[in-house]
Amino acid sequence: MNATPRKIVHVDMDAFYASVEQRDDPSLRGRPVVVAWRGARSVVCAASYEARRFGIRSAMPAVTAERLCPQAAFVPPDFSRYKAVSRQVHGIFSRYTDRIEPLSLDEAYLDLSVPKLPLPSATAAAEAIRAAIREETGLTASAGVAPNKFLAKIASDWNKPDGLFVIRPSRIDEVLLPLPVGRIPGVGKVMKARLAALGVETVAQLRTLGAARLESLFGRWGLRLHELSLGIDEHPVEPDRPTLQISREDTLETDLPLAELEPRVRALAARTFADYCRERQRDPSRIARTVTLKLKTSAFRVLTRSLTFAEPPPDAASLSDAAWGLHARVELPFRTRYRLVGVGLSGFTDADAWNAQRRLFESGETR
Question: Per-residue pLDDT for 289 more than 80?
Fold first, then answer.
C-alpha cells in the first residue's frame, strides 16, 4: 500500500429515488414505495426500505414487486427532480474537496487526503457532510471512510441506512477477511460459482490461493482479485472521468418485429443526440464518432451493430439515419420479435487530436 494512505470517503444516498418521493409526499412516509412505471415490461428503479423488507430490489420486474407487496405505492420516476437533488448534494461535497468522482446520481467517491476545510480527520468531514445533507435536503446518506476506494465502498454499506463506518489501516484484515467473496466488486454469480468450485467462499480463502494461482486461472482479473483480497486498491479518485458512451434504451410494452421499430429507433437517436449536445457543452473538446444499435430479442438474445462515422454526426437527423440504417445488418429471421431497443454514441476522442490526425491524412504526411 501507499506509505501515506489516502483518505477516501464513499457517500451513498439511502434509497435515493424512493426517499425523494417520500420527502416530497408526506402520504408516502413509512409506507413501502416502489419507484417504477407499472406494466409487464417495467423494472424497479428504486425501493424504499419499507419495500425492501418484502424482498423488493432495484432492477426487479415491476410485476414481481407488485406480487411481493400488493399494498406498495408505485410512483413513476421523475429523473429531473432526482438530478436537481443530486446537484444539491454534490454542491455540499465541493465544500470539502475538489476531488469528487461521481458514480451515479446517488453516490460518489471523495478524496479528503488534502481537505479544503480545517477538520481534524476524514471521519469528521464525513460526519459533517452527512449532517449537511440531512439539514439541507431532508434526506439521509451513508458513508464509508477508508484508505482506498475499494474499502470505502465496502464501509459505506456497513451501517446502512443513515450510517458511518470507518476502516482504518490497522483494521483492514479484521474487516475484510471474513467477508463473502460476493462483496468484492465484479464478483457476480458466475465468478462466485467458479470460486466456490475451488473451495473459496470468503476473502480469507481467496487470499490463500495466491497471485500466481489466481492469474493462471483468471488472467489479469485474477491479479486484481488477489490485490483486493489484500485490501490493495491503487485507483485514484478521478474527478473528471471522460464520458465513454451515451445511450438511450426502451423496453417495449409488447414484442415487435424489426420492421416496426423504426419510430422507436429514431426517437431514441434524437434523445441520444440531445444528451450528446449537453456533453459537448460540458466538454467541447470531446467528440463521438461511433453509433450503435442495440436490440434484445423476446428470447433475451442481445445484438449490437455499430458504425464509425468518417465525421462526427452533425445533427440528430444524421444520427437517426445511421442508427436505423444499422437494422439492415441484423440477420435474424424476419419473424424474430424484439423486447428492447437502444441507440448509443461512443468512440469519444479529443477533437483537436482528431482534427490534427485528419489533416495529416489529407495532406499525405503520414507516408
Answer: yes
